[in-house]
């Protein structure tokens, strides 16, 4: 089968795999559990996610240019356009191969596009829309590539996406502040009497810790809901997703035990800890 792949397609697939490795994402670690073909395909999809996210985060493009490039990707999901990157052809191939919903891929673009105009969220329900688009939808598309039998697996992907994104939000508070973004809902800051001014000044106090415990508990609830939603017959096919969940739960636990020093620390698990969690999930799939 691979011998029929064109040199251009093969080169694109290699570049997609490189994007995955260079991102140093916990998501990339999970792909070790996949067979050759599904791993190649998920790398293509992940490269698409990275490319559109990088457009939204680019410091070299103005907002109008970012919107123009994201609009071009919307067009490329449906048909070829002059001068398009080779990755676009590979993404359309995935859409056909797995009967992926183009609207779902457009949701991911809409999610990263929210960062162009929204830097604050009044309520968690508003933030949930963002988390759904940039994380849950990624999961919903990923499980189509992983393969599943029970439609209930979609709820698993949705809940796990919310859990992963909330963990990211807690971990990246300092980095997001540097980019002028606050993802913590304003209603949560008010609930714990921790002001935006204090957050901008990176004031670490008991009110901040209580706020973080609240957000961490919210993430844990999503992790629990995801675990309860995973159909037993799909535990093996979802091993990559389960690895992601295990690694992120470990990351969340580390921040909790350290009392959320997210302003001055960049939390991550060691290679040994990640390897241990990957091995544990692989053994559970035997």
Comma- or semicolon-separated keywords:
286 residues; 14 helices; 2 domains; Farnesyl Diphosphate Synthase; mainly alpha
Layout: helices, strands, pairs:
Blueprint: H1 7-22, H2 26-30, H3 36-57, H4 63-78, H5 86-98, H6 102-114, H7 124-146, H8 153-171, H9 173-178, H10 186-191, H11 196-200, H12 206-229, H13 239-257, H14 271-284
Can you describe what's shown?
This protein is mainly alpha-helical. It folds into 2 domains: 101 residues, no CATH class; 169 residues, Farnesyl Diphosphate Synthase (Orthogonal Bundle), CATH 1.10.600. The protein is 70% helix and 0% strand. Helix 3 crosses helix 5 and helix 7 crosses helix 8. The longest helix has 24 residues. The two termini are 27 Å apart. The relative contact order is 0.10.
- Do you know the CATH architecture of the largest domain? Orthogonal Bundle
Proportion in β-strands: under 5%
Q: Structural class given helices, strands, pairing?
A: mainly alpha
- How many domains comprise the coordinates? 2
- Low confidence ranges: none
Task: Give the % helix.
Answer: over 70%
Q: Can you tell me the CATH class of the largest domain?
A: Mainly Alpha
Give, in order, the helices and strands.
HHHHHHHHHHHHHH
**CATH homolog superfamily of the largest domain:** Farnesyl Diphosphate Synthase
Number-wise, the strands total 0
Mean pLDDT figure: 90
In CATH, the topology of the largest domain is named: Farnesyl Diphosphate Synthase
Q: Termini separation (Å)?
A: 27 Å
Radius of gyration: 19 Å
Tell the overall outline.
globular
Number of helices: 14
* Biggest sheet details: none
């Amino acid at each position: 089968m691979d011998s029929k792949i064109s040199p251009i397609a093969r080169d694109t697939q290699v570049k997609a795999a490189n994007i995955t490795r260079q991102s140093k994402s916990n998501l990339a670690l999970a792909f070790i559990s996949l067979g050759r073909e599904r791993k190649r395909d998920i790398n293509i999809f992940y490269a698409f996610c990275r490319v559109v996210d990088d457009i939204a985060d680019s410091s070299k493009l103005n907002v109008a240019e970012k919107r123009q490039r994201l609009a071009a990707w919307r067009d490329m999901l449906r048909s070829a356009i002059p001068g398009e990157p080779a990755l676009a052809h590979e993404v359309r191939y995935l859409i056909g191969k797995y009967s992926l919903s183009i609207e779902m891929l457009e949701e991911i673009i809409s999610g990263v596009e929210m960062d162009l105009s929204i830097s604050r969220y009044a309520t968690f329900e508003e933030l949930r829309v963002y988390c759904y688009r940039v994380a849950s939808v990624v999961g919903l598309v990923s499980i189509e590539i992983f393969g599943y039998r029970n439609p209930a697996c979609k709820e698993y992907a949705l809940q796990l996406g919310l859990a992963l994104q909330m963990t990211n939000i807690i971990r990246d508070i300092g980095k997001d502040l540097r980019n002028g973004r606050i993802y913590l809902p304003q209603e949560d800051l008010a609930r714990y009497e921790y002001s935006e001014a204090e957050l901008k000044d990176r004031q670490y106090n008991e009110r901040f810790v209580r706020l973080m415990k609240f957000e961490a508990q919210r993430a844990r609830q999503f992790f629990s809901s995801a675990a309860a939603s995973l159909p037993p017959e799909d535990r093996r096919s979802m091993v990559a997703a389960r690895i992601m969940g295990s690694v992120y739960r470990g990351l969340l636990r580390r921040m909790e035990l350290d009392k959320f020093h997210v302003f001055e620390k960049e939390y991550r698990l060691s290679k040994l800890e990640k390897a241990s969690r990957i091995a544990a999930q692989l053994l559970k799939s035997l």
